[in-house]
Structure formats: C-alpha cells, structure tokens
Design a protein that fits this description.
mainly alpha; Globin-like; 60% helix; binds protoporphyrin IX containing FE
C-alpha cells in the first residue's frame, strides 16, 4: 500500500476517537515541563487544529484545509524551537495517547512510524555545536 495512513479514517469511521486521541495527548503535554512552555496558555484552538489535521491526514473530512489552508507543518512549527528532546517528548506523548485510545489499535504501527518521521522532520534547532 502506498500510504496506509489515508485509509485510517474509513477504518475507524467517526471523528470521536480522533478527539479522544488529541485529548489524551494534550493531557500529557500539560504535565510536560519541556513541552508545556512551547504551547500557548489557551490550549483549545491548538487541540482543534490538531484534530482536524489528523482527521484530514487519515483520509477523513477536510475541515483542516477549509479552516487553516495548506498544513505547511514545517513553516507553522518554525516559531517553536524544536530539538531532539522536544521531538522525542512529543512522540512519546502521542504514542502514549495511541495506547489509551483503543480504536487506533490496528493502526498503531503505521501511525507510530508516521509520527516518528514527521516529528523528526520538524526539528528546527541544530544541536551541532559551532566552533
Ligand atoms: C516535533 C515535536 C513537535 C512540537 C514541539 C510541536 C509543537 C507544536 C506547537 C507548540 C503548536 C502550536 C499550538 C497552538 O497554537 O496552540 C503546534 C501546532 C500544530 N502541530 Fe505540532 N509539534 C510537534 C510535532 C508535530 C507533529 C509530528 C505533527 C503532525 C504529525 C504536528 C501537528 C501540528 C498541527 C496540525 C498543529 C496546528 C497547526 C495550525 O496552526 O494549523 N506537530 N505544534
């Protein structure tokens, strides 16, 4: 299969598990001293954008595109300094959220790989020391 991710929404069949996944992810972010400071005080708009994005990316309705346009994830993450530590923490919390959202069980492997690759691609802070 070319892109297994786009089949996921059809397999799950509704928005609710995506909302549950993002709520579980944000519960972890709220407790994370590395990540919490990158996020704004009001977490609700960001939650909504992430849910819409994931639904669209998994082949569901394209509310994200209607409301936010092209995802341009690298550009949208440029305001936040993301190094390996931030990227690893993000992935850890998303994998933990997948674990507690049973509807995603059949898609854990493909989604884990997708999140790991995307998070690595969003690293924008060089950790190579300058001499
Ligand atoms: C690498 C570690 C990552 C960090 C530290 C990070 C952090 C953030 C922060 C601080 C925001 C802004 C939230 C707000 O405005 O309330 C955001 C937005 C967002 N992130 Fe990430 N993120 C990471 C990885 C990812 C990955 C891997 C994806 C997708 C697979 C993703 C998808 C999004 C989306 C869709 C938004 C909303 C964009 C919009 O404004 O329309 N992020 N992220």
């Amino acid at each position: 299969m070319e892109d297994p991710i786009v089949e996921i929404y059809a397999g799950i069949g509704s928005d609710a598990p995506f909302y549950a996944l993002v709520e579980a992810f944000y519960r972890e972010v709220e407790e994370d001293s590395v990540l919490r400071s990158l996020y704004p005080d009001d977490l609700e708009p960001g939650k909504r954008h992430l849910v819409w994005f994931l639904i669209q990316r998994c082949g569901g309705p394209s509310h994200y595109g209607t409301e936010r346009g092209h995802p341009k994830l690298r550009v949208r993450h440029m305001p936040f300094r993301i190094g390996a530590e931030e990227s690893d923490a993000w992935v850890r919390h998303m994998l933990a959220a997948l674990e507690v959202t049973p509807e995603f069980g059949p898609y854990q492997a493909s989604l884990s790989r997708y999140f790991e690759e995307s998070a690595a691609f969003l690293i924008n802070k060089s950790e190579i020391p300058t001499i």
